[in-house]
Amino acid sequence: MGRPDLNRRQLLATAGGLAVAGSFGFAALGTGADALASSADTRVRYWNLFSGGDGSNMIAMLDAFRAAHPGIDVKDSTLQWGNPFYTKLAMAAAGNRAPDLGVMHMGRVTGFSPGRLLDAWDVDLLAEYGVREGDFNPALWQRGVIDGKLYALPLDIHVQLCFYRKDVLGKAGLLGADGRIVPVTSTDDWFGLLKEARKATRKGLQTIGMWVNDQNFQWWFFVAFYTQLGGTWFDADNTEVTFDTDKATRVLEFLRRHVTDGYADPGLGSVGAEQFINGAPFAWEGNWSVPVYSGAKLDYGAIPLPPVFGEQATHAESHAFVLPHQSDRGGAADDGAHRLAAYIVTHARQWAAGGHIPAYTPTLSTASYQKLQPQNEYASAMDHQATEPKVWFAGSTGILAQRVGPIVVSSTLGSAKPDVVARRMRSELSTLLAMKNPMDGKTAAQGGTAV
Fold first, then answer.
1. Which end of the chain is less enclosed by CB atoms within 10 A, N or C?
2. What is the pTM of this model?
3. How many CB atoms lie within 10 A of CB 368?
4. Of the given ranges (5-9, 61-65, 311-315, 400-404), which has the lowest mean pLDDT?
């Protein structure tokens, strides 16, 4: 670490290197292309939060961009994932020390004071570099639009998936003629599936790993199934809570039943992935687990979370490119930031290898993408995304998940009854709706989230 000639790929390839980089909040210095003095005409400073496999894939795409654009020197820095990243990005933007380009989770954009801490994209300039609104899922594109301006350019969607072991389900007679899991359209279907799968599961393994102790995962699963029921959060003006406690109770009872019926074991905590690798038939995980399971050479598949309440919907978030505020934004560096973001978005085949669904829809129709497995089995999730409400306190690692996630867990684990938990969730949503965003001192109703 600290050696200017240290190869970043070697560092990212080792767990020790990742731990060291994470502890300091940034990745090691890169190769000569971005760490040493450059003769390039333009330098673009780029901050991201990608480590592990995502980090390696991003580096590969950056290197491809550098090779194609030798006149642009990209100085990339990888910061610690989560709130530390957002805090540092906000401080840099407020102090006029922001990078030219950054990455955010789409759900965090509304709370990042667009217009003050974020600059809007020049959509005409993006179009010159091949990025147009028509090449994106309409709902996804609009998530990045605030007060009629584009503040977040989508790179992907990452979704919660139902991973399944084909070898185990095959023994249980739960695969169709196409070799994929049989359709599930109701809670009865789903629990009937679990019952049969358990019969073919080795002793000592749970039937499904679903992170029953984790506030983030339980919240994400809740969002998915509540959306399947058509549940809403707030009215159009963000002045009233419209959260439906009856629908919420149905979802909470559904999640809880996995534990009470013995399919998920709370005592196993976060070892669901290991259990799946060892032969457990199911795991509910994010699509970022694809490289892990493929690397283990499992015979497996992955679908969006099953539509047990009738409608397709699975929790989705998105990585998106943003322009942190600069008082003098413009010129060659700003043009380079637009060109770099457009290039990565339109060349995201490498990114798809990490399990993410590329936001740029032409990529989804390419022969190379359609051959990817199991990505080609869940790409349809692009069209039925269950997202958090578009309010300042939502988004990945946001206040909403921090406040409501533990309440969901209390129901799943049985320390509180689902109907009581549903009412507590509604009360918490009312409290959050009245809170002011520390970024700009405005409530959700005052936050300028019109699209």
1. C
2. 0.89
3. 9
4. 5-9
